[in-house]
Amino acid sequence: MSRVVNLNSPGKLRSQVMRTAGEIMRRLSQKTTVDDEVRDMSAFLVYCFREIDEGVNESVQAWEKRDYWLKAERFRTKWSWAPGAARELEKIVLQEKWELLPALLVRLLPYFDEVTIARFTRNPSLWWGAHRRLLQETVAS
């Protein structure tokens, strides 16, 4: 019997989301005014950071089942910035405090040191409508 390989492991998905978030942050740094695209990109970053946090929890659960407590705790610590960044960015987007966005993005940059972006590969349609979706999500809850 052969080994089952999961091609969409939490680590691979986390890397893809980090790449997407890195590209969005680069694009946001090039913007000079707040327009619909800035709103959509910022809201999509909220979803990216949430997805990173979910992937971390999934990885940690697998390690904890094997009693790798120290490894799990170190991993949680490494990625502990993601849920806080999601909450802070969500607050900026929902309260429309766009003047706080650049400072937050600068604080997040060190977490993206390993993400190299030579050219943009993500299609802007990826984040279209994210602002509206985030607003609807907030109204629904």
What can you see in these coordinates?
This protein is an all-alpha fold and 141 residues long. 67% of the residues lie in helices and 0% in strands. The chain contains six helices and no strands. The longest helix is centred in the middle third of the chain and has 30 residues, at 36-65. The chain is globular and about 50 Å long. The termini are far apart.
Tally of separate helices: 6
Percent of residues in helices comes to 55-70%
- Poorly predicted regions are none
> What is the oligomer described by this structure?
single chain
* Average residue pLDDT: 92
Q: Secondary-structure element sequence?
A: HHHHHH
